[in-house]
Batch of 4 targets.
Target 1
Amino acid sequence: MTNPLTELFRDDHLLVVHKPADLLVHRSPIDKHETEFALQYARELNGGDYVYPVHRLDRPTSGVLVFARSPDIARTLGQAMMAGEVKKTYQAMVRGWPPLEGLIDHPLRDEPEDRRLKHQEQTVRDARTRYRTLATTEIPVAIEKYPSSRYALVALFPDTGRKHQLRRHMKHISHPIIGDANHGRGRHNRYFAERFGKGRLMLAATDIEFAHPVTGEAVHIHADPEPSFRDVLTIFRDL
């Protein structure tokens, strides 16, 4: 099978790739039947040697994913992430027209890996996401109670890294991400799945910026959203 990862950056310490949607980063207790993971494909790119994920992307989210080529580098860069020294940028298509920019400062309750434990008491943590609206459109399709439907392309900048933070925050401000089965709007998700022949979460990690853990030099890695994402963006006439 062709390796689904696209290499974006490599040196003696790091391997950065683009992960497609619908690929797990590593094994998960809630997807025990899966046999393919970004981790194994990254190891293949690394000549068979072990690599260590520095962060995670949810299975339906595509985009930039960083692996370290040693445990020490993974630890150093992971600590930088925890300290807020790593900047990430995402693009998302959402329902409605958000303000031009804003800050979502809304604490989130931990989501356990095992959904059967979701009713147990979970820790509530601070969570902050900044956003900027990049484009808006209105299509002449009645999906809910209005004769037309509005959508926006937004850039999202998480200041914290809580589980499903971006999806939950956009739902919190009533602009859910298209294709989000858990926090979105089913009618809109179905419309785009039918129109484009396949449903997907319209969330992509496009940029990551950090100080190199060895040299200290600024690293900025960018990846355009994959074709299945860009296809849906054809509803925006000005993009």
Target 2
Amino acid sequence: MIKLSIITINLNNSEGLRRTIESVICQTYTNFEYLVIDGGSTDGSVEVIHEYKDKITYWISEPDRGIYHAMNKGILQAKGDYCQFLNSGDYLLAPNVTEQMLYGVPDSSIIYGNKVREIAGRRVVEKSYEGRQITLLDLYTSTIFHASAYIKRILFDKYGLYDEGLKIVSDWKLYLIAVGLNNEKTVYRDIDLVYFDANGISANKELDKSEREKVLHQVLPHSILLDYQEFAVEGRIVRRLRKNKVIWFFILNIYRIIFRIDKLKAIMK
């Protein structure tokens, strides 16, 4: 039976922390430990932790150097086969979702499900890759959502802890190295696992973009990076063209005409 380490980090978000804790401690799956890493909150978060301390395996409240430093503290204390990072404000969507995720799952480095978030006043289910092995190109353009992923604890021994020099993309950096470059096996489960609180630092798009560029230049060979940058530019052009339905319709028809001419030439040879 897989042992899971659920790690929650928090800083001055007592209301979100309570919601997160309550979603964890009601799980029907029992073979997990729960770790709460608080960054020295002064808003009543520590009092919330005390309310549930008999349900929490390990907790600490002290100043830290940022999100990934707090996560690394949790990893160093984790005893499970897999780690799940469920930050305060995010919560598990039903009492049986952990059990559903881990029931009969094949051995893999990363197991991941779906996240749910609110967009323009309605709840949207977001799925990633849906069952196929994730490639380097996938991770160049996107990521695996952190809270809906179970990451094998041994990966942190193999590839290192989270890069504390980054503020919001260090989890993506780990995926890029472990899965994109080293082909660690991933398993997808079509289960709505986590509700994501979109009000955190990860919503900072400019910071996300600048940190991704930094990581790509650190991690990818120059020749691969050039190819992928060219692919990304071409992809953006196509997406913009598709927004203009008149131009896109014209392009498609030109393509069909060229295809028919080439096919006719082949037949006449």
Target 3
Amino acid sequence: MKIEAIHIHAVHLPLYSPFIVSYGIFHHMPTIIVKIETDEGIIGYGEALPDEYVTGESFESTYYLLKHTLAPLLIGKNPMEFEKIHDLMNGTIYAVPAAKAALDIACFDAAGKKLEQPVYQLIGGRYHEKFPITHVLSIAEPQEMAEEAAAMMKQGYNSFKMKVGTAVQKDVERIQAVREKVGKDIAIRVDVNQGWKNSAASLVAIRSLKDLNIDWIEQPVAADDIDGMVEIKSKTDIPVMIDEGMKGPRELREIIRKQAADKVNIKLMKCGGILPAAKLAYQAEMAGIECQVGSMVESSIGSAAGFHVAFSKKNITSVELTGPLKFSRDIGNLKYDVPFIQLNEEPGLGVEVDEETLEELTQFKDVVR
């Protein structure tokens, strides 16, 4: 099987409401969808959702990098040779993990369809049967976040990820308000997205949260401040998770050596796709570290790819891949059974792409042959 063409679509995915995190407000999610065509008529879909603040990639740079650099490399290549494809991409350009993830995911989708197997069977087989889904609360006023949490509980959610990171005291008020509203038994995870900047400010906040039964605090300090994570972990009994600070194996080696986190958040857009994500999970497992598969708020394509990794690894104990639930229109049909996700057994990613919707949401496109 050989790749004959790669279609590249620059897409705006519409959100039901703005998605607000510590470093920005998103009124839609700009993403790149790729479609590879093979000489056997098999199609594979992939996705790159770049984030300048996390990986240094922009919507436009990712599109043109795929068009002019990475996609031409793969023409004529066998999409089932995952290791060779990554070696070729890595030998051509440094980093740019979201761009590489798009092609990695598309190759796995095509390979699964060729072998008539779900992607998780290609990376270790299915380990988990289902995962609970966590609802993500965007940054808002304390009572607004509390009311949203209460409303989502009525829809069946029993865990929440709170986005914070604008101001320490205000963030504490937000977390207190949500805990008071949902009661003591509902799981709450706090994602700071680097917003508390340093360990001193983070410890001030964390000391105010010690009686609120928080599952974990995610990335309170700047991404490169591994030593700050070490200090926080040593001074609190609330578990800490590293996200933006762990993109690939180099950072994970330092995290393991310094015992800088209780848990790591693997994102396909940070590490380069399905194959690198699976490798990170194994690396973490050898160090006794639990993992989560997280999201950049991808469509059904990128979200399904993350779920296939999560379902195949025993040390991946949580997922936060809720992008499709936030879109008023999506290009795929990934199914959720709130409050759970249960992957189907269809070959490849198991996602049907609506080509008409893809065309309607496309801002600009090209094809490499």
Target 4
Amino acid sequence: MTDEIPGVNMEDLRLKGFRVHALQASQELPLRRGRRDFYKMGLVNGDMTVQYGGELLELKGTVLFFVNPKVPHSVVSRVNRTSGYACLFTETFMNSRELHESPLFRAGDSPVIPLDSVQAALMDTIFRQMLAVYQEDYPYKSDLIRNCISLVLHEALRIQPPKQAAAFQNGAGRVTHLFLDLLERQFPIERPNEPLRLRNPQEFAERLSLHVNYLNRAVKQVTGKPTSGHIAARIAAEAKALLQYTDWNVADIAYALGFEYPSYFNNYFKRLTGITPNTFRKV
């Protein structure tokens, strides 16, 4: 089987549920882009440009990064030599609830946390320990790796608490959290015959047993962005991913995203991006 990541046996990763490795100092770039079926977190020291969810992120110095498998991503370029570690794991290996509820893997948030020298030293120790355990025949290896992953996640949140953590303590914050979680749980779309079910604020409000006006006020108050804006941005991001990483025709993508006719989808996509779906696919 051809590895999707240089030096990583993907079949072994899927069988064991986890993988820890040191980052290669250099490699042929760019890596193959696309969605994968594993989560990833790493410690990187150096300069790197990563495409994540359609945006270019600059990783400079020493940083922690967290990759949600639902978000298309790839390394675009590296400057000088980079070093560090990466830990890949499947959803079934970890507690899925811990992953789904962690703001570190929330689509739309930055997956990068800059570290100072003390924080970098702590993370380096944890990742070195994970790598050492991974290379041993310790019978409880899986449990120890799982605990190390949880430790990294909690230390990362301690270093950089989520921006909306305080807001979640009030009613508007909790409603916004519920809305964003419900929105994200609809993705990724994996089959064209299972169309998106919630596509407008009214449908989300009904699912959450709220009045739509209250939902709109809460989301706007906490995020500064209207409910419809969040929905439109997420549908547009999924449309781009389906156009880039599947061979579905535009009509199938339109149906999967809940549009009754392809022409409706074409107009919607062009209004948000400035180009048609077919033009985007050719770029």
